[in-house]
Amino acid sequence: MFFFHEGLPRSGKSYEAVVKHIIPAIAKGRPVDAYIEGLNHEKIAECAGVTVERCRELLVQLSREDMAEIWTKTRDNALVALDEMQNFWPTGRDKLPPPMIQFITEHGHRGQDILGMGQDIRDIHAMWRRRCAQKFVFVKLDGLGRQSNYSIRVFRAIGPDKWELVTQNFGKYEERFFGTYASHTTSDIQTANYVDSRTVIWNNWQFKWLLPMFGLLLIGSGWALYEWLWGGKLIEAKEVKVAWKPPAPTGQPARIAAAVPAQAEKPLPVQAPPPPPRDYVQTVADKWRPRLSAFLEMGQRRQVVIEFFDESMRARERLDYAQLRSFGYEVEHADGVVWLKREQVQIIATAWPMESQGRLSAQSNREVAGLP
Known about the structure:
The chain is of the alpha/beta class. Helix content is 25%, strand content 26%. It has ten helices and 14 strands. The chain has helices spanning 13-27, 41-48, 52-58, 70-73, 98-105, 126-129, 205-230, 280-287, 321-326, 362-368; strands spanning 2-7, 32-35, 59-61, 79-82, 113-118, 132-140, 149-159, 162-172, 289-298, 301-309, 315-320, 330-334, 337-342, 345-350. The strands form three sheets. An eight-stranded mixed sheet has the order 3-2-4-5-1-6-7-8. It is flat and about 115 Å long.
């Protein structure tokens, strides 16, 4: 499979190639042929948990000169990592040599997986682009003031130069992997990241002034709402105390009303559960007369046809075995009688004789024909 890491310089694409692909491959004992500047076998061996000799055996670092005949420099079953592909196979109409075309189109036959890297996949030759199955787009989060973090958007190919977003993740540079590769060609190259505070979104005046003001406004609105609801703005009910005075004595003794025994509450009648809803077959059977029109059984296969006739002997509905089963009915047959059963519903259908209206008997037909 050919997949591609796309991103601007120092966006995390080479770091992910080493940490997520090359080191795990070496830890599993898979050969790796890589064109990435400054691969450090000692540091990679330490991260992969193998000896330096084993790491040198598995990991072969390719040079710029090897790119011209890459098909002769890579091993079978290897993970091939190629950085800055646009420098060797740029986009254009120039035809690639046949061995290169065969390497691109048939690398899977050799058990190889190819990891390509570049700043934009559109900058590499169309022969490569049309074979790319997945694309990982890296963006450094320096605009959020996080120089050591980056985002990863994963796309899958759905057509020539057409991509569909699959997922999005975030990554971070870990110090234990520092030194596994060099992000620059020589030791005298300036390696610090150029930083302009104006490009950081948190240094924007909208975030410096408007965001704190919005926060204060939100807090003030919440406090005012709290005071209005629970801070005494609502009318509170006042407690009124009434002094109690005993009634004045009278000359007549107080009458004591006879205690009336409380009537026991009558229990509420228990309502019977509603009957189950009537299904379609039951409704049709109540309206018209069912008749067994056909029954066929061969091994495990069964076919039944039930017709429903009105009083005029006209067929108004016809249901077969599959339809009856779809309505939840079990079909049982014995001695020319079919039982349709579903929960508490049971419908019986027989092949009862059916005479058409106005039909003459056989004797009447012979008499009309002048036969004895």
